[in-house]
Amino acid sequence: MALSRPQFLLLPLISFVVLVLGCGGGSSTDSFDQPANFNLSPTSVLVEGGQSVQFVATGSGGGSLVTPAWKVNGVTGGSSATGTITANGTYTAPATLPTGTVTVTMTNSAAGLTTSPAVVSFFSDQNFSGTVSSSNNPLVASYSVPAPLGATVQVQFGTTSSYGLTTWTQPAAATANPTSSTPISTTVLVAGMRAATIYHMQAMLKLASGRKVLDSDHTFTTGTIPSSALPTLTIPQPALAGAAPGVEMLDIFNQLNTTGLLQAVVTDLQGNVIWYYPLGTEEVPYPLKPLPNGNILIVISGPTRELIREIDLAGNTQFELTREQISAGLTAIGSSLQVANLHHDILKLPNGHYIILFNYNPLLPDGSYSTVTGDGLVDWDPVQGKPVWTWSAFDHLSTSHAPYSATDWTHSNAVIYSPDDGNLIMSMRNQNWVLKLNYQDGAGDGSVLWRLGPDGDFTMPAGQAPLEWNYGQHYPTVVSPNSSGIFSLMLFNNGNNRLVDSSNDVCGTTGFIPCYSSVPIVQLNESAKTAQVTWETNLSPHYSICCGDALALPNGNVEYDVAFDVETPNQSFFQEVTQEQTPQLLWQMNLVGQLVYRGFRIPSLYPGVSWTQAAIATANTPAVKKKQ
């Protein structure tokens, strides 16, 4: 493996070289003292035969580092049997692997001090074995396998040794725990399995040398889910051949949940739960969304707590931020904004910041709080642990525009990032507007660049307005390659109080058409301020008075969630249709007794991996059930 030239680290009174990539055990024969803070980094590494790694000294060796002496098992320069090391700390493993481990040390001859030893272990593709264990989630296995430096690891799994599904590919862990000399293992969380089922799984390693090796087959039995906790799902239209790959993520909203029903759920297209995250009594996921880093972001809303939590597939918390911490952060920067509730959406930006949506009642000059509830945004930098940009609807919109309520004034429900210009696109249901905000990656002044909807900044072609404007809309998404200039948005147009003619007559009133929901694609020209519906599926007679979403799928189909349909009370349903003038139904799932705030297709539980319906079927046939 080719290596870059050594990097030199300049520290007070001493300069060092080296990047640690080595493995092993053993002890140095040097007689010099070994101060606790004079180490090699990393402390442990796993390598193939003939592989090279660079070690770096860290800490204080005392005095100037003039002629460092690098040793393997106490021998300067090493040997053909244990591996060699150069004067700048590049270790090369022997082609014929030694038994056991070896140690690498560096001596600062000028100071008479030697580093603590780093351990080099050796990987044999003829003799290695991973381990599979349970995780915090009964449906998720933790698969750990020794993987040498520069290797990648992927796991295939299914109910037979034919497998069928794969996880994403992960790089081998670069180092072990700094306090451990245990050989390095790489862990992959295996998710996407049905409950109470025996699965086979096997790690696939691609080594830095290009060779591919397989671990032995392992089995894992998933845990059970009480039937009383399962959502009531039916599949009136099984997936046809043209259905898109993937699985369904369901964000179920059941605020009075006192019976332990699952609400943060992923199912396959047959309605089998393959992942979930448990919530407390009366808590809801508000919202739930997958992230590009493989984690899942959730806002937990309940009577006793409101918080943002980023979790891995096993449910382990990777980041957490409470409503109280956000309010304290706002106070610390001198902002008058205070968080009343976290709600509806959250956005994680490519730079790792979180755009947090909240509502609040502004403080009036007399010290009382306004009865008008509006929305605010906070850009939270998790590294600094504080807000770095804020926005308030009260600073940029007039409260005189209140189509639905002078109290619940804005009721925003979505915030998305526009990568082309670094701005934010925001859906305000109670304004009947989708807005673009001047964010500019945190440098913008928050001004409203445009408002899409009735009484907004765009015009529609003759015959489209006012019927085709967005009314009470949810979940806008950019469906064109670009997100500024001339580009296209898809959204779920709920249709609340839809105006049906130029006289501003309202749907559902005597003599006029019933209200209905629709899923349009709207092409926007930001310069000319024109909007045109280029495709739409009219869902009449279905009319979802709240919630819902729509998504363009990778194969060109469209999926939408009809969450609160007046035609089918107490039932949410999801449909996948073709994007044609007359859309064809390819799949449908119904959920009874719970409202699905958002239900949408994700390619798999792993970024960059797409599970076809055929692969999902292979991975679950035959499904060997564990005895209850």
Broad shape: globular
Distance between the termini: 51 Å
Main beta sheet:
6 strands, mixed
Q: Structural class per helix/strand content?
A: mainly beta
Give the tally of β-strands.
48
Average pLDDT level = 90
Number of alpha- plus pi-helical segments:
3
Low-confidence stretches: 1-33, 176-181
Itemize the secondary structure elements and their pairings.
Layout: E1 8-11, E2 14-17, E3 39-41, E4 44-47, E5 52-54, E6 56-58, E7 68-72, E8 75-76, E9 78-79, E10 83-85, E11 90-92, E12 102-108, E13 113-114, E14 118-122, E15 131-134, E16 141-146, E17 152-158, E18 165-166, E19 170-171, E20 185-190, E21 198-206, E22 212-214, E23 218-221, E24 232-237, E25 247-253, E26 264-267, E27 273-277, E28 284-290, E29 296-301, E30 306-311, E31 317-322, H1 323-332, E32 341-348, E33 354-360, E34 374-381, E35 386-392, H2 393-396, E36 412-418, E37 423-428, E38 433-437, E39 448-452, E40 474-478, E41 486-492, E42 518-525, E43 530-538, E44 549-552, E45 558-562, E46 571-577, E47 585-592, E48 595-602, H3 613-619
Parallel strand pairs: 4-14
Antiparallel strand pairs: 1-2, 3-6, 5-11, 7-8, 7-12, 9-10, 10-11, 12-13, 12-14, 15-16, 16-20, 17-18, 17-19, 17-21, 21-22, 21-23, 24-47, 25-26, 25-48, 26-27, 28-29, 29-30, 30-31, 32-33, 33-34, 34-35, 36-37, 37-38, 38-39, 40-41, 41-42, 42-43, 44-45, 45-46, 46-47
Care to describe what's here?
There is one protein chain. The protein is mainly β and 628 residues long. Among the domains are: 8-122, no CATH class; 131-221, Immunoglobulin-like, CATH 2.60.40; 311-395, no CATH class; 397-543, no CATH class. The chain is 3% helix and 40% strand. The longest helix has 10 residues, at 323-332. 45% of the residues are buried. The model is unreliable at 1-33 and 176-181 (pLDDT under 50).
